Amino acid sequence: MKPSTPSASKNKQWILVGSLVGILCVFGHLAWTHSAMSFQDVTSFFLGSSSQKLRTLFLFIRIPRVTAAYLCGAALSVSGLVLQTTLNNPLASASVLGINHGSGLFCVASSLLLPTTLLTRNIMALLGALCAMTLLIIISKKTRSARSTLILIGVAISRLMSAGINILITI
User: Fold this and answer.
1) What's the CA gap between 132 and 137, in Å, rounded?
2) Mean pLDDT value of segment 126-143
């Protein structure tokens, strides 16, 4: 077994601090949102001595929201890690590669064409992100570019999609 290095113990300390802050944020969200509750209400729920109304509020509204927020945050962090590891660049992100602007372009286009349907806007945003990523992959395959060049191609796609957004907004 390897001896513990100072940086490894420092990383463990940061993970512990981050975990404690996360737990405090969960309790804070459960206690202090739109319908104000006391810290006693939160602890009584976790101890099993809360009212039916409070249990329903926690089980069907607050805990699913906190869980969804944590899962979304975890998914975003993993996707960022995958992009940075794949491209071997710590600055790589969805915005640098043009994925965000592709999503935005399709979202703006769907808002102009179908302004009242929210589901269509979400689906179009996903398709826009996929189209931007596909365009990045096609250009990189055609030019046989290196990983470092992918960032530049992504910046160009980002600017192209941003120009499309500006055109749609001004028309």
Assistant:
1) 9
2) 91
pTM over 0.85: no
pLDDT computed for residue 4 by the predictor? 55
The rounded Cα 21 to chain-centroid distance in angstroms is: 19
Nearest to 166 by CA among 109, 83, 88, 98: 109
CB atoms within 10 A of CB 70: 13
DSSP state of 59: I
CA pair distance 1, 112, nearest whole angstrom: 61
Find how far residue 101's CA is from the centre of its chain: 15
Q: pLDDT-derived band of residue 26, with 50, 70 and 90 as boundaries?
A: confident
For the chain, what percent of residues have pLDDT higher than 90? 27
Residue 28: what residue type? G
DSSP at 171:
-
Mention every residue, 6+ apart, whose C-beta is less than 8 A from residue 149.
140, 143
CA distance 12 to 19: 10
